[in-house]
Amino acid sequence: MFITNTKRIIKAALVNFWRNKTVSMSAVLVVSITLLVFGSLIFSNAALDSVLLQLKDKVDINVYFTVDAGEEDILELKKSLESFPEVESVEYVSREMALENFRKNHENDQTTLEALDELGDNPLGATLNVQANETDQYESIAKFLGENSSSSSIIDKVNYYQNKLVIDRLTKIISNTERVGFVVTLILIIISIIITFNTIRLAIYIAKEEISVMMLVGASNRYVRGPFVIEGVLYGIISSALALIIFLPVTFYLGSFTEKLLGVNVFEYYLTNFFHILLILLVSGVFLGVFSSYLAVRKYLKV
Amino acid sequence: MIYFEKVSKTYKNGDKVLDCVTFKIEPREFVSIVGHSGAGKTTLLKMLLAEDHPTEGFVFFGSSDVSKLKKDQKNKFRRKVGVIFQDFRLLPHKTAYENVSFAMEAAGRTEEEIESDVPHVLELVDLGDKMWNFPHELSGGEKQRLAIARAIVNQPDLLIADEPTGNLDPINTFEIVQILKKINELGTTVILTTHNKGVIDSVGKRVITMDKGRVTRDDKSGKFSL
Known about the structure:
Chain B: Keywords: ATP-binding, Cell cycle, Cell division, Cell membrane, Membrane, Nucleotide-binding. Chain B: This is Cell division ATP-binding protein FtsE. Chain B: One of its GO terms (cellular component) is plasma membrane. The complex is a heterodimer. Chain A is of the alpha+beta class. Chain A folds into two domains: 2-55 and 172-298, no CATH class; 67-153, Alpha-Beta Plaits (2-Layer Sandwich). Chain A contains twelve helices and four strands; from the N terminus they run H-H-E-H-E-H-H-E-H-H-E-H-H-H-H-H. The radius of gyration of chain A is 31 Å and the shape is elongated. By secondary structure, chain B is of the alpha/beta class. In chain B, helix 5 runs parallel beside helix 6 (170-185). Helices cover 35% and strands 27% of the residues of chain B. Classes of the chains: A alpha+beta, B alpha/beta.
């Protein structure tokens, strides 16, 4: 009996979906738009992440050592810095490399190079370039360097304090952008869900009389609700397929543009994360359809 | 078979639509209930279908108290009762065949039973050639005959007809009454509510007259009198 009933429910859902084409199409349209919003949010989050990551990469602090600092002491300090969880990477630039860089940077500045030659000795100290995971972690790293007495004798200066203002401001911008992005995402998702829910509720409101007749004929709740829930599944499947197809030409068109502007090619991002995005859209589409149908029918099952 | 025992119904706003109604209907009886609009006929039928509950008193169908049925018992009970309405209440997106087969599916009948019974019952109400039409393609009389086919396909013990001829012309009205009489002769209890004097007179069976929520007359072989 269970199998027969399930078969009948699925058949009824397919037939209803086909016969109420206008209603089905409008439901599919609204769910599709919701899924397009979801997808766009995924893309814009990826773009935002990439932009913020680039910004973060540009921030670092440099530790300048005195000219007579021993290489072993510097490398030991590097090692202890690397053991910090906040530290992402530490780059060591030796005195010789610093000189070479300096020469390269002043290739066309003959007077400076001549002055350097005149000195005979290498006037530049070694440096450590420290990159933290998050921009707000530089302060504690700088503090560590200042308080560490064994290393403070060899450290000439830490440029965090010169850059503090810029780093702080950037930290604020990044965290604000992330927060605003999250809130906007949340609001858009909530609006889309409400609109979808109401459209499906309206579609089922049209069938209100039908539901009461089915109840009067003695159909069980499950048997009345079944086809509507399956129709919800159909809305989800068709809409997610539609959204996925629409994203193909759109991301292709925007791909090179976003790569130039934001450093991430949305078309490539779409292709590499296709199954991930498919799963998100399919699951949320089906969930939205089923959940809305289930709730909407429940209201009319109390005859 | 059916007992109304001192049934009263008072709505929250204080309106008393049924006032101590008591009567009894035997199996295979054909009972007409007449009365002005608002006399309480439809409320009475709603209680019989467990759509509404009495404030006082009991409604018994056989040995079960209708108002105390649980949800799934209610569904099973409704499959034993066929109902037709003035406004037909067909499923608009289903064909004549599907409207009837839906009632059988809801009752959990097999595909074989459905395939053999549906054409048969549609033939019985003279809709054999309109099996694949949708309700909006049928005339008023045809719609009501389809509703009857749906109501009787599960061989109910009781058929309730709530003003079934209210929207029909005299010829269709006559046809519907003839079908109802035939169903009754085949052994189904029929309860009919109506305003139509001609219908009551042509049935010529028991008539219960209601006024302002009370039973005012109960005639064995009644005539229409209000």
